[in-house]
Structure formats: structure tokens, C-alpha cells
Amino acid sequence: MRHLLGTEAMSLETAVLILDTAEEMAATQERAIRKLPVLRGHTVATLFFEDSTRTRLSFETAARRLSMDVISFSARGSSVSKGESLKDTAQTICAMGAEALIVRHRADGAPHRLANAGWVDVPILNAGDGRHQHPTQALLDAMTIRRHLHCGGNRRAPQGSTLAGAKVAIVGDILHSRVARSNLDLLTALGAEVTLVGPPTLLPVGIDDWPARIAYDFDAVLDEDLDAVMMLRVQHERMSSGGGGYFPSASEYEKVYGLDSARLARLKKEAIVMHPGPMNRGLEITAHAADSSRSVVAEQVANGVCVRMAALYLLLAHGQEIDA
């Protein structure tokens, strides 16, 4: 691996390698002392040009668990507000000793540009770019589903296992969601059957060419023996007028596409409820569904640290072994 930019061209072998490595990292996190010395002396920088809580803290936690030094950059309050470019910012951070850049940006393709333009010569990890890709979110979601599919979520998934035969529904604001795009690419590569569910106004143009089944009736999809239901956040910040024009009202959206107690009860016993966060409680998901025993949101967060440890390790460790 040279960079981790997206899941659209990720091979099955690479996906399984990252997931298997994440499981090895998870085993080390069960120890009293969770820190590994494997990347001691290395430095990574988080360059966040868009607000984030979970992804940023997860990457920084992962880096520190591998004994790395972390340079933390946020566009808010930085020279970006004075007009400094992505190129100049990245080159400045690399001049400070960063050996890898974790980049979140509002513009589609920004991490790809950074990786391919020749401005810097370090690995780039995409932490989310516009509506485009969020590869580590898809990987942590796949890790969570794989664990529940193969062993009820209580222990490590078998090495080399895939998601063959899994049925996953991704529900809600598909139009604005990099999580939906990344998950669709990765889950289908791993053998899962994916159904995208949402109102026509929140589905992108050309979606019929995507490798998924498209549905508009959430209730009908619930009758299909699902293994996982992934509820997506309604992204008001990417909509004009806070959602006006995309659906009649918040109450109407919740009524038709929200995961409530009644819909939760219709899922099979083993099915899990997922959400990439942050949640709009009372819109795409009720508090009861979000806090139910079926919800694996906390597991997703924990698995995210392990996936990001695996990504950093595979990019920077140069063949050193994990003592799991």
C-alpha cells in the first residue's frame, strides 16, 4: 500500500488484508497496556479542512496507540483563512517532519490531488472528501458486519473471511453521503448484497448504474432477512435551506424513512443497526433504536481505532511484525 484514498478500486485481497490486520490490532487492545512500539519515532499529521470529532480523534488515538507523534492541524483559525492553499499547507506540515498525512476536505478529490500531484512524497490517508469517499469508515463498518456475520460480534472474525451472503440496507441521504459510496464499493467487493433505500430526491443521478439494488420503500426492504441496517445522517449542512426541497418536513421524513421501534422489531434477531454518526435522533433514527441492544454504534467507534491502526501500520511499518 502506498496511499489509502478510497474503496472504489480496492481489491478483495487488500480489503481482507486490512481487515485481518485490524483484527490483530484489536487483539493488542485487550491488554492492560494498549500502546505498541512498532511506529515509535514516526510522525503523522492530521490535516482537517472540515469539522470532525469521531474521525479525527479516532485517527489520532490510533497513531498514539502505535507510539507515533501527531501534528494536529485544523483549517479553522489557521492560515487557510488567509488564503493559504492545500499545496502550501501540506508542504509546510511535511517540512515539520510529517511522514504521512491524514486529510479531510470539503472538496471531492482533494486527497487524490495531494497524492498524485507530486507536491509531497508521503502516504496520504483520506479521512473523507466531500461527497466522494471515506475509506476507513467503510472498513470499520465492514469489520463490524464481518464480526457479527461470522461470530455474533463477540470475538475476532476468522482470518481471510469475507461478507459473502450478507444482506445490508443503507438507508437515507444517499445523495450527500461519502459513507454510502465507500460502503457500497467495499461491501460488494467483499461479497455482500447491498440495497440503497431513500426518497428519489436524496438519490444521485446515475444511481441505476451503481452495483446495488435501489428501493424507495423502507418497509418492504425490512422484510428481506437483512443482516445489517445502516442509517445515514441527513446532511443539512450540504443542503440549501436546511433540507428544503429534498423532503416535505422532518416529521414526514421520519415517518417514511426513520428507524423507529416498530421497524426495529421487524428485523430478524441477529440483525444489527449501524450509524456512522453523528446521529440526528428523532429524524433518521429514534433514541430507542439508537440505544437498543441491536445498535452497534459503539462497536463501530471501537473498531474504527483498530482499522486506522491497521492502515497506518501497513503504510508505514515496512514489514515489521505485530506482536498480537
List strands and helices in order, with pairings.
Layout: H1 12-28, E1 43-48, H2 54-65, E2 69-74, H3 86-95, E3 101-105, H4 110-116, E4 124-129, H5 135-151, E5 167-171, H6 178-189, E6 193-197, E7 213-215, H7 218-221, E8 228-231, H8 250-257, H9 261-266, E9 272-274, H10 287-290, H11 297-316
Parallel strand pairs: 1-2, 1-3, 3-4, 5-6, 5-8, 6-7, 8-9
Helix pairs in contact: 1-5, 1-11, 2-11, 5-6, 5-11
Low-confidence stretches: none
Structural class: alpha/beta
Biggest sheet architecture: 5 strands, parallel
Which oligomerization state do the chains in this entry correspond to?
single chain
Q: Helix count? A: 11
Proper CATH architecture of the largest domain: 3-Layer(aba) Sandwich
The percent of residues in helical segments reads 25-40%
Overall spatial form: globular
For the biggest β-sheet, the strand order reads 7-6-5-8-9
CATH topology of the largest domain: Rossmann fold
Number of domains: 2
Percent in strands: 5-15%
Tell me how many strands there are. 9
CATH class of the largest domain: Alpha Beta
- Give the N-to-C terminal Cα separation: 21 Å
- For CATH, the homologous superfamily of the largest domain is named as Aspartate/ornithine carbamoyltransferase
Chain-averaged pLDDT: 91
Helix and strand run: HEHEHEHEHEHEEHEHHEHH
Rg over alpha carbons: 19 Å
In words, what does this structure look like?
- The chain is α/β, with parallel strands linked by helices and 324 residues long.
- The chain is built from 11 helices and 9 strands.
- It has helices spanning 12-28, 54-65, 86-95, 110-116, 135-151, 178-189, 218-221, 250-257, 261-266, 287-290, 297-316, and strands at residues 43-48, 69-74, 101-105, 124-129, 167-171, 193-197, 213-215, 228-231, 272-274.
- The strands form 2 sheets. A 5-stranded parallel β-sheet has the order 7-6-5-8-9, covered by helices on one side. It has a 4-stranded parallel β-sheet with strand order 2-1-3-4, with helices on both faces.
- Helix 1 (12-28) packs across helix 11 (297-316) and helix 5 (135-151) packs across helix 11 (297-316).
- The two termini are 21 Å apart.
- The model has no long low-confidence stretch (mean pLDDT 91).
